[in-house]
Amino acid sequence: MSTINDTTTPVPTGRQGAQLMVDTTGTATPTIMMSTTNDITTPGPTSKYSAQLMVDITGTATQTITMSATNDITTPGPTAKYSAQLIVDITGTATQTITMSATNDTTTPRPTARHSAQLMVATTGTVTQTIMMITTNDTTTPWPTARHSAQLMVDTTDTATPTIMMSTTNDTTSPGPTARHSVQLMVGTTGTATRTITMSTTNDTTTPGPTARHSAQLMVDNTGTATPTIMMSTTNDITTPGPTAKYSA
User: Fold this and answer.
1) How far, in Å, are 137, 152, 196, 202 from residue 114 at the CA level?
2) Helix (H, G, I), strand (E, B) or coil at 156
3) Disulfide: which of 6, 80, 136, 147 matches 19 by Cβ 3.0-4.6 Å?
């Protein structure tokens, strides 16, 4: 799943949305090809963003994705409610279902971001899969700390009942408001058959600085039909000169 985000101007809010790549393969070997056509609405910066998507999945399981985006039309400020407000339904011979919804940040007054993939992804099916998810976070300025979206919790189970235990170590450094760099994670899950992935985001609401919203710059890899493994690592924000820098995984 890759999104081509809108770079229309002069609006500063972009169309950042879910900058994701999702690749799903498994014993049914479905393949996701996702292309996004982003809305270029003018003159207001607020309306109709991110992933207005049409997704076609082809593979031996011959699945079809129908993806509809409900984009936010917030006014009059350009600040919020962006990204992939998506509902994705996948049905096919492998009988999978993906539900993706975004909970966007409503922070103000910075118009620049708290965007991208604030997602909840739930995947169920009868075949094993490989998920590759990469988030590219917003690097808006002049705030150096960026707005790093998806602070995720991933729970995976399957018929062999593997369980992901994901612990977040939230940064509580002070006095800067930019701390709380949640998901500094390493997750490992093993199993043998169908599984369910539930991914939800808890966004940072630290104040008074608008610079928070950090964490999960993720790559999630879930592979195998016997012993699938999820490796999740976060590359956190290195903000300066504040105390919040370098919150690795």
Assistant:
1) 9, 15, 28, 12
2) strand
3) 136
Q: For 122-158, how does the pLDDT look when each residue is reduced to its tens digit (9 = 90+)?
A: 233 222 222 222 233 333 322 222 222 222 223 232 2
Which structure tokens are listed for 195? Answer: 């599984």
Helix, strand, or coil here: 157?
A: strand
Give the separation between CA 229 and CA 70, rounded to whole angstroms.
33
pLDDT tens for each residue of 98-123? 333 333 333 322 222 222 222 223 23
From the number of C-beta atoms within 10 Å of its C-beta (0-12, 13-18, 19+), residue 174 rates as exposed
| Strand boundaries in 48-107, DSSP class E | 53-59, 64-69, 86-91, 97-102
* DSSP label at residue 83: S
Rounded to whole angstroms, the Cα distance separating 82 from 245 reads 27
Peptide bond into 175 cis (omega under 30): yes
Looking at residue 215, the DSSP 8-state letter turns out to be -
pTM for the structure as a whole: 0.13
